[in-house]
Amino acid sequence: DTVNRLEPQGSGDHLTIGPNIIIRPATTGGRVGSTSANRLTTLQGTILANMPGEVISIDGHPFTNDGSIVIDAGAQIGGTTNYVQAAGGSVEVEISGTDTADFGRIAMTGSSTLTLNGTLDIVLSGFSPLDGDTFEILGANSRSGTFPTVTGTDAGGSLTFVPIYNANNVTLEVQ
């Protein structure tokens, strides 16, 4: 049977998605976690957003990524919850152009907060960015922390992707 959401049921207050589990919604979009208060969601496996135009909603109070989230160009992870990237977590964004439809991103809304740690993986796909190009890859109402590990920073032609940590987002700037 195929469903387009994964959430805790009954009296449980915590959803843990274990290692070696890959979440890939059956159709464009889907939801992982619960919008109910005090229902924690912890990812130890993988969420794969690989369809252009796709928005996968993540929820939990908070949603903690201690696994991996892979966001291909044109796909997006969204939601209204606080996003916590644990030290063991990674987020991978693919960049294939400068339009928001050309790169993967996390865009949380409402009063959500990004708390960053772990690894940011940048994957360049069939595109040659120019000096000064920018890509807002993570956004929320507020942000704290940074990615101690950033891979894939080579933008070609002696240029690099440099993470810029702003009050409410993370932008990659080509320098």
Kindly describe this structure.
It is a single chain. The chain has strands at residues 5-6, 14-17, 22-23, 30-32, 40-43, 46-49, 55-58, 63-65, 68-71, 76-79, 83-85, 90-95, 105-108, 113-116, 119-124, 134-139, 142-145, 149-151, 154-156, 159-165, 169-174. With 175 residues, the chain is an all-beta fold. The strands form 3 sheets. The protein has a 9-stranded mixed beta sheet with strand order 1-4-7-10-13-16-21-20-19, with no helix packed on it. β19 (154-156) and β20 (159-165) form a beta hairpin. The termini are far apart. Mean pLDDT is 85; it is low at 1-5.
Classify the secondary structure makeup into a structural class: mainly beta
Cα-atom radius of gyration: 16 Å
In helices, the fraction of residues equals under 10%
Low-confidence segments, given as residue ranges, are 1-5
Number of strands: 21
| Largest sheet composition | 9 strands, mixed
Percentage beta strand? over 45%
Mean pLDDT: 85
Q: Can you list the strand order of the major beta sheet?
A: 1-4-7-10-13-16-21-20-19
Give the overall form: globular
